[in-house]
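Hi Q.,

Before the meeting this afternoon, I wanted you to have the cobalt (II) ion prediction in hand. No need to reply - just skim if you have a minute. The sequence and ligand are here:
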Amino acid sequence: MAISIKSADDIAQMRVACRLAGEVLDYIAPFVKPGVTTGELDRLCHNLMVDVQGCIPAPLNYAPPGYTPYPKSICASVNHQVCHGIPNDRPLKKGDIVNLDITTIKDGWHGDTSRTFVVGDASILAKRLVNLTHECLWIGIAQVKPGVHLGAIGAAIQKHAEGAGFSVVREFCGHGIGLNFHEEPQVLHYGKASDGPILEPGMIFTIEPMINAGKAAISELPDGWTIITKDRSLSAQFEHTVVVTPTGVEVLTLSAGAPPCPPGIQIHP
Ligand code: MF3
Ligand code: CO
Ligand code: CO
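Predicted structure with the ligand bound:
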């Protein structure tokens, strides 16, 4: 299967689904405080998506080949959890970092975005990792314009992460998205700038670097979903869904409350 090119009409529908996903993160941000459980955050997000936004939470019962159905409506990955953490009844504590990953389905179209939140205050290392990972996302976005190889995104992210002494998770990547949650292409967060297909207007995909404070290796918990760092080092992630425009890139999940593009990073408008 080739990479699908979305029409102007498709892109308009994706804009809606993606904005709603971003607005779920805007809504939940003030609730991410010491003492709240990730299960409560899941319930709040679920109710907003279903009762207010008229969306379907894409993770709920999502079951790719070889996986048991995902049991919750969002992913909540704490500290050394890399991704796909399952919300539970343990309260967050001051100093934790937690990634909340939201995927909405609106009229069949998927919007996918995540942020890592610092709970209360955190260590210098945790804050440095979170900020660096956010920069990695935007440095990836800054590569996007027609005519560039997809590999430019991963190459730029890898250079920034490893230059800071951190490592890039290899086993999970960004992905094409639209009427399907995960479609072609795979968007690696490492590799060579000259690798991969050439970007064309109308391609829609996510960029979602997972960056570890320690080594890149991961393992999976017996729940069949949660991914952790093998060395139990901290891991952070940020994700946006983007569309390649005739001149550059549009960030579809950039809602009002999203942390802005860091200073000094130039996006192709
Ligand atoms: N939202 C994740 C991504 O960015 C995928 C989560 S799959 C789930 O691709 F089933 F764990 F929700
Ligand atoms: Co994604
Ligand atoms: Co996601």
